[in-house]
Design brief:
binds flavin-adenine dinucleotide; four-stranded antiparallel sheet; 8 strands; Butyryl-CoA Dehydrogenase, subunit A, domain 3
């Protein structure tokens, strides 16, 4: 098997590395999922996002008329892998916009929606930032039980309800919202629709939910008589569930390349640290690092398989779930192995990553804090395994 990339992909790789040299401070390394929390990190991420957009990278595989470059999925994969490795902030700017709102709009959006929102997302500007309103206090895995309702009136919809765990709602200009449009549907999931909601609309309240690391990533969002125009319905009314299966597959599939790049960087940094400190002489540490090297390589194969299938035009069902479950386990092992290697230095809060006591810029500590969340976000591992069982292994449904 030949996994070498062609000249076009290698050119992208070289350009990204040059960009890193020019735009990021020397030795830059930043954990995932952190950039929405502190204002200074967010501002920096936004400034990089704009620069990525100017180079056409932010949405490089999108068609040119929507602000993309018409690049291949392989070129985009190399960009995301490199971006993850070097910790380039601002890559998924628009948390969801780039990875699932844009692609879903291309599938289901009206021409007006495509013209209005896709260039905004591609711009890397604050007005292109999205959040995703799926989960509710009583509806996470059991997503079909959402209660937020959108009632159709003459010239629009009126929305009432509550969303929770909404990442980046405090930064977002738009929400990609799932709401009930037919409360009397014979089956719950046949009564759900997808909407675009302007976060500046009257009736929206965003409350911070500070997580156990002290980061402000999540929020709860209340929608009280929020009025939106009819034109903000995405796709067909009451067909939202089916559309969401695509959006969720984009979401799960989008994380792989950058997470894979980031995990490889952590491994490389741990290997460097073990060499510098002499810890490499401990056979236990050598073996753990070797285990990590094997798993980082396997994770890469999952990603490449997904990109290959996508580039053939296949619809992915269980494949992103396999990738996600494996990556979640790998992330946990990397975090715990890294913590064992760094020892007491891992007690330095990642927000103090510039301290001389912080090793690897607090990235291992940050990974340790955040890995439980990665196995919950975008579908818990149990739900992903149900998908693999049902669609990958064709097991009968057990509930
Ligand atoms: C980092 C992070 C970011 C997030 N960002 C967003 C966001 O931006 N927007 C958004 O809408 N939501 C977001 N979420 C919420 C996330 O989608 C939900 O937390 C997730 O879907 C699980 O729902 P829940 O928390 O209600 O847990 P529950 O669904 O109540 O699950 C509790 C436990 O029961 C298990 N379980 C439930 N049903 C089954 C089943 N059928 N079979 C086997 N086990 C089952 C689950 O695996 C889990 O272990 C985010 C979550 C995290 C951690």
């Amino acid at each position: 098997m030949d996994f070498d990339f062609g000249e076009k992909e290698e050119a992208v790789r070289r350009e990204i590395r040059e960009f890193v040299r020019q735009e990021l401070p020397p030795g830059w390394l930043m954990g995932r999922l952190e950039e929405e929390s502190r204002d200074e990190d967010w501002e920096f991420a936004m400034s990089i996002s704009r620069r990525l957009s100017k180079r056409g990278w932010l949405t490089m595989s999108w068609p040119k008329e929507y602000g993309g470059k018409g690049a291949t999925l392989w070129e985009q994969m190399v960009y995301r892998e490199e971006a993850g490795y070097w910790g380039i902030p601002g890559v998924t700017m628009g948390v969801g916009g780039v990875d699932w709102v844009g692609p879903s709009l291309m599938l289901y959006g009206t021409d007006e929606q495509k013209e209005e929102y896709l260039p905004l997302i591609a711009s890397g500007e604050p007005d292109g930032v999205w959040c995703t309103g799926y989960s509710e206090p009583d509806a996470g895995s059991d997503f079909a039980s959402i209660r937020t309702q959108a009632v159709r009136e003459k010239d629009g919809y009126v929305i009432n309800g509550q969303k929770i765990w909404t990442s980046a709602a405090h930064r977002a200009r738009w929400m990609w919202l799932a709401a009930v449009t037919d409360p009397n549907a014979s089956v719950k999931h046949r009564g759900i629709s997808i909407f675009i909601v302007d976060m500046k609309s009257r009736g929206i309240t965003v409350n911070p939910l500070i997580n156990y690391t002290g980061y402000h990533i999540f929020n709860e969002v209340f929608l009280d008589d929020v009025r939106i125009p009819l034109g903000n319905l995405v796709g067909e009314e009451n067909r939202g569930w089916y559309q969401l299966m695509h959006s969720l597959s984009y979401e799960r599939g989008s994380i792989g390349p950058s997470a894979g790049g980031f995990n490889r960087r952590i491994l490389d940094e741990l290997v460097r640290y073990a060499k510098e400190t002499g810890l490499f002489q401990d056979p236990n540490i050598r073996h753990k690092l070797a285990d990590m090297a094997i798993e980082v390589e396997i994770a890469k194969m999952f990603v490449y398989q997904i990109i290959w299938k996508m580039s053939r035009g296949d619809t992915l069902v269980y494949e992103p779930s396999m990738d996600k479950v494996f990556r979640d386990m790998l992330t946990e092992r990397l975090a715990t192995t890294g913590t064992e290697i760094l020892g007491a230095y891992c007690q330095i809060d990642p927000l103090h990553r510039d301290s001389r006591w912080s090793k690897l810029r607090g990235c291992v500590e940050s990974l340790y804090w955040l890995f439980p969340g990665t196995s919950i976000a975008a579908g818990t591992d149990e739900i992903e395994k149900n998908i693999i069982g049902q669609f990958g292994l064709k097991l009968p449904k057990s509930y």
